[in-house]
């Protein structure tokens, strides 16, 4: 049985690391308050370093608000940081502190990464990024995401065990070799 396909292609609104020309695109639908996403975070960082320019990583929001009451606001804070060119810096801090995401914490993290906190606080209060986060969530639902983290490799949901680094890297390496064979 084929894995679910990504419904929303990578686009200019996405937060990406790595070259667009990389043979493998790994997309994570995540939740900054999710303990499983926090466990996956250092693994994804290691895989990014291991694969180098062969991997483009994309992060999309999938806040599970009922289980994680701070996740939506943390996602919006990351978007506010992104508007100031600091998305990845805040992304890292949020996962490293996934159990401390109340409003005071978020503002402190925004300051820590060098954001204009007054501007970010005003944007958060006005709901400036609520729609962006909701759009990511809806795209995830349309793509078959029902929990976090959920990963897609070159447009197909990875249904293997992401916690098994060897299995995860094998799937990414296989995807890269399939692209290289087709070239």
How would you portray this structure in words?
The chain has 183 residues and is of the alpha+beta class. It is 49% helix and 13% strand. The chain is built from seven helices and five strands. The chain has helices at 35-51, 71-82, 87-96, 103-112, 117-126, 130-142, 165-181, and strands spanning 15-17, 24-30, 55-61, 150-153, 156-157. It has a five-stranded mixed beta sheet with strand order 1-3-2-4-5. β2, α1 (35-51) and β3 form a beta-alpha-beta unit. α2 (71-82) runs parallel beside α4. The radius of gyration is 16 Å and the shape is globular. The relative contact order is 0.21. The mean pLDDT is 95.
Describe what is shown at a glance.
The chain is of the alpha+beta class. The chain is 49% helix and 13% strand.
Helix fraction bin: 40-55%
Q: Strands of the largest sheet, in order across it?
A: 1-3-2-4-5
| N to C succession of SSEs | EEHEHHHHHEEH
Number of helices: 7
Structural class: alpha+beta
Largest sheet: 5 strands, mixed
Report the β-strand fraction as a percent range.
5-15%
Mean pLDDT: 95
Uncertain stretches of 5 or more adjacent residues: none
Molecular shape: globular
For the CA atoms, what is the radius of gyration? 16 Å
N-C termini distance: 26 Å
What is the quaternary state of this protein? single chain
Count all strands and give the number: 5
């Amino acid at each position: 049985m084929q894995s679910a396909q990504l419904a929303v292609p990578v686009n200019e609104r996405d937060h990406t690391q790595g070259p667009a020309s990389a043979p493998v695109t790994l997309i994570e639908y995540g939740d900054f308050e999710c303990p499983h996403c926090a466990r996956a975070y250092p693994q994804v960082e290691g895989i990014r370093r291991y694969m180098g320019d062969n991997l483009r990583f994309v992060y999309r929001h999938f806040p599970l608000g009922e289980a994680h009451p701070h996740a939506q606001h943390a996602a919006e804070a990351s978007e506010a940081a992104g508007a100031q060119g600091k998305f990845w810096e805040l992304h890292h801090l949020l996962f490293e502190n996934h159990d401390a995401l109340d409003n005071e914490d978020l503002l402190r993290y925004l300051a820590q990464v060098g954001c204009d906190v007054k501007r970010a606080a005003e944007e958060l209060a006005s709901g400036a990024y609520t729609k962006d986060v909701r759009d990511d969530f809806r795209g995830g639902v349309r793509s078959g995401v029902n929990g976090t983290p959920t990963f897609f490799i070159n447009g197909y949901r990875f249904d293997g065990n992401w916690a098994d680094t060897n299995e995860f890297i094998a799937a990414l390496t296989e995807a890269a070799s399939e692209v290289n064979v087709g070239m």
